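Retry 2 of 3 after timeout on previous attempt. Resubmitting structure tokens to design endpoint.
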């Protein structure tokens, strides 16, 4: 039996491994009172890290709804799986790669995409689409009003991180050969030191061909396949479980290096090997590498795994057991095969030019046993690494954001300066703001047509849509999150994230059937952060229950803080929906040709002026035009939201509408102009003020609103469907050639050619990235 050379590790060694003295004492108890070896200490370090163990979040995540008649696999596996009918299922999941993407943007993003793709094909599913939710610090040199100015150095760094991340996402997905259907790209000051890179992937699998990460069968061989093991990524999981400091740049070796071409070979080899029938279980070597794959496969199957490190393919010499077990080198998998059928597996991987080596065997003692040169260097019960990992019910402390709940005088003064009644220039300014402007510069770098299944590409609709080949059915997927709204009210902001992602899917004509979440937060050891987290889980739970959308899995990313400053609480929701007839998918933009009637579907009237004023402070207009933030997110009635989504799905399925667009950031004025850009078809619209000021009417972000266009003769039927679902369908205008003409109570407030607004919208992001902030400041 392995023994330690010393009686204990120093406090500094424990700190470097992210372990507390109490956790170390628990390790000794789980090992029968003995001291761990250094290799065992490293194994406990990664498996008990926040990234792998969910030790701070597990008590809260149990509240999420995870079941429905369609759920085949909920949380606990590499990906969730939903039954989509006709013998098919879809596997999907979202994961974060935030910390690596700050340290090394390109490689951090590539390996984030690579990791989520492996999670999908580990289940036996072929990846058919990806999306990404990206958040960065400001990319312009200064901001108006009381919001903090942004230094030129900070802007330069944010440009570099943005360009590296987008290039990395594009590089891996394009080379691997999976279409990227878009997602979201947002900018806030709090993400300057902590960019968020959340990757969402979806794959298709036959219901009777799903694989699981469970070992079984005493004596069955354990087979290592894929890339060789190197020293990259060691302690990557531990790094992702701590805050950033000024020394974080030195952690580049903790960032893995990806090879998308090798991963493509690994995909094909794994799917082919699965078809032989010789595979018992399969697990991706992701966070914590060989450590995680061995103990988790054994733990799920209630068996042990013994491996001999001398057999592990290595690309560097002199690697220690500690380094081999903790390496997070990419494009590697661990298989358990049926004894006697090893050669069938080896032949498949030899055909694809990949390493496939028997490195161990399944045992019945429920322990992870690691040998080097025939000598045991680590022997740990699987349960000690998984079920017995610490679970913390951390203290919660209610928190109020340091902003006014009422409109500040500075905002009133700025509104007074803009009270001329003409909002054309204001709309142009808002359309060029970073969160609203067109993201063509981002998504044009992605291949969105590879595999030839794409129906709705980036920019064409609120959701991405793919067809299921061999049928007329399709799948829609969408991402959404609003960190600023969760900052103002975590519970309400989380409800909006679920509702908005589901609404985007519904706007394609698909019925939302499942969701996955990526929960990005600061340091969980701070009581107010855990309060934000708990409130967010409550909000998601409420929305998912009301909208009947189960959570099938996801990811928690804590410690998104730099020098003690945390990000906004940022839950990102990925929702998947089923389209019974992919040919009926709704487009976002106005169709060219005959004049169409424009209808606003809405769940409820705007509130009184006091409520509207409070909610307006959370809008993009407040932040970008008035230069400050206050108040609360818009009120959200989930019963009304469910009715709205049901109605729009029915209208699209019945062929009653030509175009559909969710109304969100920037309000009605932005949504109407976004519908006009692709074809150049404009609008002649008259909105009712309902007693509200014109800027509230144009740019307020009330919940549960969708803009439709239709043949005039369909208006009555649309209103009938709306009335049946107890929502309003209000005719607000008609399409016209080439111009945006918007009036309120008959008085013109916006009048301009579509082309003028399109120029601002389409060029703003690239112009910001190509502009030297020092020159802007000098002006």
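Retry 2 succeeded. Sequence:
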């Amino acid at each position: 039996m392995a023994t330690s050379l010393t009686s204990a590790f120093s406090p500094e060694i424990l700190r470097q491994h992210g372990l507390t003295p109490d956790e170390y004492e628990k390790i000794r108890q789980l090992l029968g009172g003995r001291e761990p070896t250094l290799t065992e200490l490293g194994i406990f370090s990664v498996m008990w890290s926040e990234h792998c163990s969910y030790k701070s979040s597990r008590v809260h995540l149990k509240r999420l709804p995870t079941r429905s008649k369609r759920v085949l696999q909920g949380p606990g596996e590499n990906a969730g799986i939903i039954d989509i009918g006709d013998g098919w299922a879809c596997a999907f999941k979202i994961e974060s790669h935030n910390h690596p993407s700050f340290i090394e943007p390109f490689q951090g993003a590539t390996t984030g995409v690579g990791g989520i793709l492996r999670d999908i094909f580990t289940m036996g599913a072929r990846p058919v689409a990806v999306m990404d939710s990206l958040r960065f610090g400001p990319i312009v040199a200064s901001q108006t009003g009381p919001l903090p100015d942004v230094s030129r150095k900070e802007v330069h760094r944010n440009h570099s991180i943005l360009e590296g991340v987008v290039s990395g996402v594009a590089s891996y997905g394009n080379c691997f050969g999976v279409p990227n259907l878009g997602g979201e790209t947002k900018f806030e000051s709090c993400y300057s030191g902590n960019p968020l890179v959340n990757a969402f992937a979806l794959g298709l699998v036959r219901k009777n061909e799903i694989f699981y990460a469970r070992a079984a069968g005493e004596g069955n061989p354990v087979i290592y396949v894929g890339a060789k093991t190197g020293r990259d990524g060691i302690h990557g999981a531990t790094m992702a479980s701590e805050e950033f400091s000024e020394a974080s740049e030195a952690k580049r070796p903790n960032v893995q290096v990806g090879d998308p071409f090798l991963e493509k070979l690994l995909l094909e080899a794994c799917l082919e090997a699965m078809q032989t029938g010789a595979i018992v279980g399969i697990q991706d070597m992701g966070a914590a590498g060989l450590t995680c794959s061995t103990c988790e496969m054994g733990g799920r199957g209630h068996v042990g795994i013994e491996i001999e490190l001398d057999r592990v393919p290595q690309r560097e010499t002199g690697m220690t057991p500690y380094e081999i077990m903790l390496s997070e080198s990419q494009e590697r998998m661990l298989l358990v095969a049926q004894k006697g059928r090893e050669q069938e597996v080896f032949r498949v991987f030899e055909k694809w030019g990949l390493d496939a080596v028997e490195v161990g065997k399944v045992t019945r003692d429920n322990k992870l046993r690691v040998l080097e040169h025939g000598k045991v260097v680590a022997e740990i019960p699987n349960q000690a690494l998984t079920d017995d990992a610490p679970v913390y019910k951390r203290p919660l402390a209610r928190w109020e954001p340091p902003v006014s709940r009422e409109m500040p005088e500075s905002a009133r003064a700025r509104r007074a300066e803009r009270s001329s009644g003409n909002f054309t220039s204001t709309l142009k300014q808002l359309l060029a703001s970073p969160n609203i402007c067109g993201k063509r510069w981002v998504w044009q770098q992605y291949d969105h047509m590879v595999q030839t299944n794409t129906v709705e590409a980036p920019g064409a609709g609120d959701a991405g849509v793919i067809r299921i080949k061999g049928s007329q059915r399709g799948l829609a997927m969408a991402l959404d999150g609003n960190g600023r709204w969760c900052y103002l009210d975590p519970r309400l902001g989380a409800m909006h994230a679920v509702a908005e992602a589901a609404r985007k899917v519904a706007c394609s004509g698909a019925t939302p059937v499942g969701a996955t979440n990526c929960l990005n937060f600061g340091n969980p050891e701070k009581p107010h952060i855990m309060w934000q987290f708990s409130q967010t889980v409550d909000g998601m739970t409420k929305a998912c229950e009301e909208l009947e959308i189960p959570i099938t899995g996801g990811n928690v990313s804590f410690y998104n803080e730099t020098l003690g400053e945390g990000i906004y609480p940022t839950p990102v929701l990925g929702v998947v929906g089923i389209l019974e007839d992919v040919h009926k998918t709704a487009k976002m933009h106005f169709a060219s040709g005959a004049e169409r009637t424009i209808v606003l579907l809405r769940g409820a009237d705007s509130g009184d002026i006091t409520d509207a004023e409070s909610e307006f402070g959370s809008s993009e207009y407040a932040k970008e035009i008035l230069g400050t933030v206050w108040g609360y997110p818009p009120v959200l009635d989930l019963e009304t939201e469910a009715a709205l989504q049901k109605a729009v799905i029915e209208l699209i399925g019945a062929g009653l509408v030509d175009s559909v667009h969710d109304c969100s950031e920037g309000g009605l004025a932005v949504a109407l102009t976004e519908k006009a850009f692709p074809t150049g078809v404009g609008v002649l619209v008259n909105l009712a003020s309902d007693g509200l000021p014109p800027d509230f009417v144009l740019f307020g972000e009330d919940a549960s609103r969708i803009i439709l266009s239709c043949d005039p003769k369909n208006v009555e039927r649309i209103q009938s469907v709306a009335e049946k679902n107890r929502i309003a369908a209000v005719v607000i205008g008609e399409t016209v050639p080439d111009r945006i003409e918007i009036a309120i109570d008959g008085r013109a407030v916006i009048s301009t050619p579509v082309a003028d607004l399109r120029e601002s919208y389409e060029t703003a992001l690239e112009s910001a990235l190509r502009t030297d902030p020092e020159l802007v400041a000098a002006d």
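Attempt log closed. The first helix runs from residue 11 to 16.
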